[in-house]
Amino acid sequence: MNSGKRGRPRNLETQQAILQAAYDLLFEIGFADITVEKIAERAGVSKATIYKWWPGKAAVVMDGYLSAASQRMPVPDTGFVFDDLLAHATNLTRFLASAEGRVITELIGAGQTDAGVAEAFRSRYVQPRRKETRQIIDRGIQRGELRLDVNPDLFIDLLYGPIFYRLTMTGEELDDDFIKNIVSLTFQGIAQAKP
Questions:
Q1: Is the CB of residue 18 less than 8 Å from the CB of residue 60?
Q2: Where the record puts its DNA-binding region(s) (predicted)?
Q3: Residues 91/132, Cβ–Cβ less than 8 Å
């Protein structure tokens, strides 16, 4: 979401109405057919109100989508880094494989020809997910479960790259066994050696 630098502070009720309208329209008519005008009409606000808080359609739609989706993907903290990574990757993958999660592929596709969508997707979806995984890795390092020389960014790429490859390229199934195998294989490269 915008940091709120422009205009007056957001009215939470109005903000929620806008986010809900964007989310509902995303599933009713698809990203390509959404306009700021349609969001404003559905939310009962002016276009100017939306533009005060968001730079454009992609940002408000992404925020509406993630506002609903983030509640389904909590960051686990079981006390064991492998279990946390497995739970995080499994929750994300189950979400991506759901009807609601399939919107992600639409947004990735739209981002190939629309720089605003690509930026909104990276800043509002990809970077927060990477930050969550980084928190899990940092906890594992602090607890001595992971090597001190771990490259967290490379590990995140190795872990989540195959998931998005299947999601957007091969169309192969994203099931729990696949996720457990990916997490196990990538984890072997960063785990602290047993004494």
A1: yes
A2: 35-54
A3: no
Q: Which residues contact 71 (CB under 8 A, 6 or more apart)?
A: none
Give the pTM.
Answer: 0.78
Sequence-ordered list of residues with C-beta below 8 angstroms from that of 86, at least 6 positions apart, any chain: 179, 180, 183
For the stretch 148-180, pLDDT in tens is 999 999 999 999 999 999 988 998 988 999 999
Q: Exposed (0-12), middle (13-18) or buried (19+): which is 6, by Cβ within 10 Å?
A: exposed
Between the alpha carbon of residue 88 and those of residues 37, 52, 118, the distances in Å are 36, 34, 23
pLDDT tens-place string over residues 17-26: 999 999 999 9
Residue 43 CB burial class (10 angstroms; 0-12, 13-18, ≥19): buried
Give the integer Cα–Cα distance in Å for 182 and 59.
Answer: 32
Fold of 72-188: Tetracycline Repressor; domain 2 (1.10.357)
CATH of domain 12-60: 1.10.10.60
